[in-house]
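Section 3.1 - Work completed
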Amino acid sequence: MGVPQQPLRPVGAVEGMAPAMTVPDKHLLDSVAAMTPGRILRLLYEAAGGSDGAAVAVHLLGGQVLTGRLISVATDQGHEVAVLYDPRIGSLGYVLTAHVIAVEVVHPEPFTDVITGGRLPAPGEDGDDGEDGEDSEDGETSRQ
């Protein structure tokens, strides 16, 4: 007998993390790099930690799911810990990254360089400011 599986719930219910209305860019989806949950948390924090951190849902070994903004990842007493801020209730959640089995990144586009392992540049680093709406080399219209 295993641990009962809980269905994934949408993380868009958290204030500031509206559910996605569109599918991410095909180039982004085709370029996503497979990473361990601990690594993606660490890299997302390095890219944009603090109060404007990535909106994530963290799935733990015991079946719990914490949602919020990733505001810190650090080592304490030899253990890597991620800290999430849930604006819905104003709470902080402290998670041992060794107990994280999955991470969902809400609205991944701002973290293109992180989630693709550098295969695609960060938004605004590709030489196109994204404001002219002109077609790129692949025929796609740039987004603002």
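Second construct:
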Amino acid sequence: MFLLIGLLVLLAGRARAGDDAAEVAVHVSGPPSASVVDLVVELSPIAGLGAGWSVPARGSVARFADVPPGRHRLRVAGAGWDKAATELTVAVGERLRVEVVLEGAGGTTRSRVASVERQPVAPGQAFDEDLLRQAGFRQVDVIWRWCNFCAWVAVK
């Protein structure tokens, strides 16, 4: 327990509070019989001189951290898939969860953005979660459950 706390304090200088940027998570799904591998998700600012970002979707999820506020164009593409695109307006300190449903290229239905959820995040919460992710933890909610369990055992 104390080792975990020491590790978090050690890495605190490298983590950003997330108070001047946002995070965008893109979740991609396709037809039940197909796999969504080799997908590329692009996020680029509409106005300004920023180059944007392009990341592969790992496990059908692509994450963009430290996205500056403003309007951005989101594109999801992959070999054999119809492209999906939309525009997003990102605010400071916000987390966006974008659900994209892909359809096969040349099909009768088109790929689409199914939903966009906006989750405002307090700077403290974003700082804690970013700190744990930078420390190498993949499932942040599991860490908090274990910490709560350890505290409960210590009290007993």
